Amino acid sequence: MGVAVPKLAVLLFLHRIVGTTRRYQMLGLYLLIGSLLIFSALTSILLFVQCSPTYASWTPLVPHTCWNPKILEHLALFVGGERASTVRFMKAP
Predict the structure, then answer these.
(1) How far apart are CA 56 and CA 65, in angstroms?
(2) Helices assigned H by DSSP within the chain
(3) What is the rounded distance in angstroms from the CA atom of residue 15 to the CA atom of residue 30?
(4) Max CA separation in the chain (angstroms)
(5) Is the bond preceding residue 53 a cis peptide, omega within 30 degrees?
(6) Residues of 40-61 as b/e, b for ≥16 C-beta within 10 angstroms?
(7) Which of 5, 40, 49, 81 is deepest in the core (most CB within 10 A)?
(8) What distance in Å separates the CA atoms of residue 91 and residue 55, rounded to the nearest whole number?
(9) Is residue 25 left, alpha or beta, with left meaning phi > 0 and alpha meaning psi from -120 to 50?
């Protein structure tokens, strides 16, 4: 979520600049804001629920069971690509 908040602020700033003049850009902004919030929240939640008990994520010596690490890896790659596309959209004229 720490990376999403500054991007959200910039997207909201762009929302004020674009206004209602370009509807396709407004739709793109709404989609980016929604996807940024959803995927950032999903990543944060999955970080906490991937291991049982939760504190086993920080203390690996505790007996625990965790999900396959590939699940979080694939989600992180997807979210990274989504965030890169957000930056690309923010630079578009």
Answers:
(1) 8
(2) 4-18, 23-49, 69-91
(3) 9
(4) 58
(5) yes
(6) beebeeeeeebbeeeebbeeee
(7) 40
(8) 40
(9) alpha
Instruction: Summarize pLDDT for 5-47 with one digit per residue, the tens.
Output: 777 777 778 777 766 667 777 787 788 778 888 888 888 888 8
Query: Tokens representing 71?
Result: 């699940």
Q: Is 7 exposed, middle or buried (0-12, 13-18, 19+ CB in 10 A)?
A: middle
Residue 87 pLDDT greater than 80, yes or no? no
For residue range 48-75, list pLDDT tens digits in order.
Answer: 888 888 888 888 788 988 888 898 888 8
